[in-house]
Amino acid sequence: MNTGDALDFWRVESIDRGRSLRLRAEMKLPGRAWLELTVDDSGDGGSRYRQRAVFFPSGLGGRLYWAAILPFHGVIFSGMVNRIVAAAEAVESE
C-alpha cells in the first residue's frame, strides 16, 4: 500500500509504515472524512494502537448525519480495534 492507493471507499493520504496510516473517505458524504490509525511505543516495551475518525460536516445536513451515525461508530470501531490488535498479536507471536 502506498500514498494515493485506493482501499475500498478510502484513499491512502499518508502512510508511515509501522507507525501511521491516514485514509481519506471517497464515499459520498455531507462533509469530508478521514480515518487515522497510529501505533506508538507504550513505554513499557509494548505498543499502543489508536484510531480516530475525523469528520468536517458540510452544513446542517452534515451535522445531522454525524449525530445519526455516531452511536454506530462505537460498535464498528471497537470491533475494528479488536481485529487489528488480534492480527498484530498473531504476527508478533509467529
Write structural notes for this entry:
The chain has 94 residues and is α+β, with helices and mostly antiparallel strands. The protein has one domain. The chain has one helix at 59-93; strands at 6-7, 10-16, 20-25, 31-41, 47-57. It has a five-stranded antiparallel sheet with strand order 1-2-3-4-5. The model has no long low-confidence stretch (mean pLDDT 91).
List keywords for this structure.
5-stranded antiparallel sheet; alpha+beta; 37% helix
How many structural domains are formed by the residues?
A: 1
Please give the largest β-sheet. Answer: 5 strands, antiparallel
Q: Quick one: how many beta strands? A: 5
Please tell me how large the radius of gyration is: 15 Å
User: Hey, roughly how much beta strand do the residues contain?
Assistant: 35-45%
Please list the strands of the largest sheet in the order they lie side by side.
Answer: 1-2-3-4-5
Secondary-structure topology with pairs:
Elements lengths: L5 E2 L2 E7 L3 E6 L5 E11 L5 E11 L1 H35 L1
Antiparallel strand pairs: 1-2, 2-3, 3-4, 4-5
Short recap of the structure:
The chain is an alpha+beta fold and 94 residues long. It has one helix and five strands. A hairpin with a 5-residue loop joins strand 4 (31-41) and strand 5.
